[in-house]
Amino acid sequence: MTRNPLLDRIGIDLPIIQAPMAGISPPAMAAAVASAGGLGSIGVGATNAESARAMIAEVRARSNGPLNVNVFCHRPARPDPQRESAWIARFAPEFKKFEAKAPAGLSEIYRSFAEDDDMLAVLVAARPQVVSFHFGLPSAARIGALREAGIILFASATNLAEARQAAAAGVDAIVAQGYEAGGHRGLFDPDAADDRLGTMALTRILAREIDLPIIAAGGIMDGAGIAAALRLGAAAAQLGTAFVGCDESLADQGYRAALFGEAAHHTVMTSAISGRPARCLANRFTGLGAGIAATDIPDYPIAYDLGKALHAAGKAKGEFGFGAQWAGQGAPLARSLPVAALVATLAAELARG
Fold this sequence. Notes:
2 domains
């Protein structure tokens, strides 16, 4: 396989990046991917600086391979007590079904990296090989601090305009996130129109228009998909859903059952669970959210506060259908393997073309 400068710079043998899935991809997964020759990732957007420090340390205790630490750069939430109260009231009957009380109020459960100085300090001190941005970009000062620490920077983009903005900001590679990707859309502005470009079209457009390495992300589940992305000009492929069914994944039993069941054939883009568009396995929550106007949903991550509470209430009674079961359109191709075995299988499939 022909080498490319991005792999050499990161220090990996395979053009395989495990997506940083906050809450699902633990340090054990990232370490296993890194040890197998790919780039392992952890998502710290849903945690605080001290927890991020501990996660990075755990990866390093398990592997000497490179690590990607992903942060969320979303616009801080705009509280709207009236909308939030209406949101709680809307879902109160669902809580009642599980003999649970709806939250009395909702809060902004995650801090954006755009204003989290403690997280910046942890990353500058820890110096992971890569830091990646999702939901937009941080300030020039934050980007400068990370670059001065010698950290390689990735940014997700869902269209050419976002990719150009990221390139101008000084990132080193663009993650081309297609509409078929699982989890949260990386839209810089969730209120703007979404062109919903597919992974392969977006990858090809960015490879032609942007003078940076492009990483294809969305719907890629096997070596054939990786090979296709490389042929279209990608330097590497990022796979998320492919790793959800792995032994090291933190996906619960309900999530795994849905991934390997009929729901895998019916993924849905929804904002109802968290407050931002995200692709999820079809479940009870996506069904309830289907008819809800976007203007009725509280800002991310305030809406997620209720989503997590409702999932906990249902799970306590054996109902997993309110979970954030993020998955891409390639979900039917998921495999249940240890991470090392999956990476080896992907590499073998890629070698066969």
